[in-house]
Amino acid sequence: MPPPAHSPARHALIARSLTAGYGPAQILTGLDLDLPPGRITAIVGANACGKSTLLRSLTRLLPPRAGQVLLDGRSIHAMPPRQLAQILGLLPQSPVAPEGITVADLVSRGRHPHHGLLSRWSAADDRAVAEALTVTGTADLAERPVDELSGGQRQRVWIAMALAQQTDLLLLDEPTTFLDISHQIEVLDLLTDLNRDRGTTVVMVLHDLNLAARYADHLIAMSAGRIHAAGPPSEVLTRAMVRHVFGLDSQIIADPVSGRPLMLPLGRHRSKMPEGCPDARAPGCGV
């Protein structure tokens, strides 16, 4: 895949020996992670494997119990909050909007990291908000209260706020939640455009393994608070990985649209591998 058309300063976000959790529960254990700058990374795994905990740790919403997260070689916990927010944006899972706030006001909050005590709202802020509303298809909702919107509309508004922040790194926890399939594809296409046009590093947690493989340059499969496999989807999405991470038997074929690996789950009424397959890697036979 060619590099993005526009390449901003390439910020390196990594974790070293990261251990984190909640209360007595330890979720992440000694995790090492390197996120490819300027690329799209998708994090996949079974429920409660630590995907959201990892994202919260990477944005310092959750302090580590051991290890550290480094942005350009500097601990994110040593950086001023405004400086970090100008570089790294986060769309958390199930965010909550202030009661009665309108769509335009919520999206405008994405510009707060760019304002100091004496700075004023500018034409650049107007452009950033307008563009975010337009590309997410929420411009016609600008004056409506967020709490009156459907789940899908609300999710797109939150994505608009994250885009208005205009950070070089954008982390999203399940950005396609509540969206029907057409809006899921629209959001993922939007993030792809953002990556290719601006060079934005995108990191997202996704439940749909096939969409993750189609849209990501780099795939991270997590299991029990650790990284089981990481690399290009063609190397990570295998029958062995699906069995280990999800406890599911499957076949892997080439996606006829993207050429990326496509996972076909096998349930109790499973189909056998087609006759004539010399091995699992033959075309149409799975991996």
Automatic annotation (TrEMBL):
Membrane topology field: Peripheral membrane protein
Origin: domain of life: Bacteria
GO BP term, pick one: iron ion transport
GO cellular component, one term: plasma membrane
Domain ABC transporter residue range list: 13-249
A GO molecular function held by the record: ATP binding
Chief location: membrane
Alphabetical UniProt keywords: ATP-binding, Cell membrane, Ion transport, Iron, Iron transport, Membrane, Nucleotide-binding, Transport
InterPro entries, per the entry: AAA+_ATPase (IPR003593), ABC_transporter-like_ATP-bd (IPR003439), ABC_transporter-like_CS (IPR017871), P-loop_NTPase (IPR027417), Siderophore_ABC-ATPase (IPR051535)
Record localization: Cell membrane
Family: Belongs to the ABC transporter superfamily.
Protein name: ABC transporter ATP-binding protein
Natural source organism: Paracoccus liaowanqingii
